[in-house]
Amino acid sequence: MRFRLFLALCLFLSLPALAADDRWHVPIEVKKLDNGLTVVVSSDHSAPTIGISVVYKVGMRLEPKGRTGFAHLFEHLMFQGTPKAGKGVFDKVTSGGGGWNNGSTRPDFTNYIESAPVSALEPLLWLEADRMRTLDFKPETLKNQQDVVKEEIRSNVTNTPYAGFMWIDIAKLAFDKWENSHDGYGSFDDLERANLDDVRAFHRDFYGPNNAVLAIAGDVTPERAFALAKKYFGAVKSRAVPPRTDFTEPLNDAPRRLLQGDPLAQVPALVAAWKMPDRASPDHAPMVVLGELLTGGNASLLYQGLVKGRELALGMEGLYGLTGPFEYDGPTLFSVFAMFKPTSNADAVLAAIDEEIGKVAKNGPDTAALQRVKTRMKADWYNGLEGYVERADMLARLQALWGDAKVSEQIPQWIEAVSAADVQRVAARYLAPQRRSVIERQPRPAAAPGSPPPAASAPAASGAKP
Known about the structure:
This protein has helices spanning 3-10, 70-77, 89-96, 121-133, 139-158, 169-174, 178-181, 188-193, 196-206, 222-233, 284-295, 301-309, 346-363, 367-384, 388-402, 407-417, 420-430; strands at 29-32, 38-43, 49-56, 100-105, 110-117, 212-218, 256-262, 269-275, 313-319, 333-340, 437-443. By secondary structure, the protein is an alpha+beta fold.
C-alpha cells in the first residue's frame, strides 16, 4: 500500500507540504438499497481477505428507560441464532475459514464486525441479513444471556479496581438527561426485568435495514459487493424507526465533584471531565487536537507537567466517553484519568491540570508541539484505516453518524487546519474549571460481612460476546 510511503514522509514533512497526489486516498463508494440499507465499499486487492461491518444506529442512549443495559444485552442476543441459522452457526462459519467476529455497544451505535478470507464473503452476508430479518426469540436464550451479562458485571466491575468510573460514573455526574447519564452496562434488576416482548420490539424498531449501514472492505470490486448486498439484504423489509428524543445539553456552568471509595484500588485516582463541542461544529476538530496535546502520550503537556515534572501523578490518560473523538452523535465528554501518589492529593492534581490548561488558554500552544501532534494524529488516522475490518468498521460508523463515509478523507484536513488560535479558544471555552466534573476514587478497606456493597460503576460494554 502507499500508506507506508505516506507514513515515512510524515516523519519529515507536514501534510500541507505534500502534493495532493502524495496523500493516501481510501477508495470509497456508497449506494443505498431500495429498503434504505446504506452500503459502503472500499476495494483493496492487497490480500485475499475482507472486512465486514454492520452498524446499527442505536446504542445505550436509545435503550428504554427502566431497561438499563438493554442495548448491550441485545448485542449478545444477536449471536444466539435465528430460525434458519441456529446458535453457533455464525461463529462456525466465521472461524471455519480462519476468520473472527465480534460486536460492541456504544452510546450512539452498535456494531458487528467480521474478518475472513474473501471466500467467506457470501456466507457472512447471508448470515448478517438473516439476523437482520429476525432472531430466534426464546425464553431460555434470553435468560442465558441475562446471566452472561450479569457475570460480566461481576467480573469486570465487582472484582476490578476503578471499575470504569472514568467512563460511566463520570457521565452520571456530568450529564443531566437520563439518555446521556445512565449506566449502559445495566443494573441486575433492570436486566432481569427485560422480557421477550422488549427483545422483539427492540429488533423491530432499531434493527431494520433503513437504520443500518453495511460496509465491506478488501478484496472485492464495488460492483460485486453492491450486487451481493442487494442479493442478500434487498428483500429485508424496512421498518419504522421511533423518533429520537432531544438529548442535547448545554455546557455546565458550575463545577461538580464526587468522592468514591474503592476496596480494590491500591492508589488513589481521579477523573476530570468536560463536555465536548457538538460533533461537526467549528470547535470539534480544535478540541480533539487540544485533547491530544494534553494527554497524547509521554510528550503530552499533562504527562510532562504532572508525571515527569511535578511528580504528582503516576500516569495520565485521555478519554472520549466510550468511543473515539469523531464517533459520537450526542453529548459526550473529554476526560482525563489519572492515578496519583498517596502522598499527593486530588486538589493538587487538579490544580496542576488547571495550570497546564490555563497556559494554553492564555498563551496558546507551542507551534512546534502543535505541528508534531497534528502530524502524528494524521498518521495514526491513516494507520487505523489500513486493516480491512478496521477500515470497514470506521467507514460504517462515519456513514451512520455523519451520513457520509467520505468524512474519513476530510478528518486529516480538519486536523491540519487547526491553528494555535483555535486551540487557545477551545481551551478557554470548554476546559475552564467551572465546566469541570470530577470524581475522586480513594482506596478503602472491603466492607465488613453483612454490610451493603458499595455502589458499582461499569466499564465499557465492548467485546461483549461471550
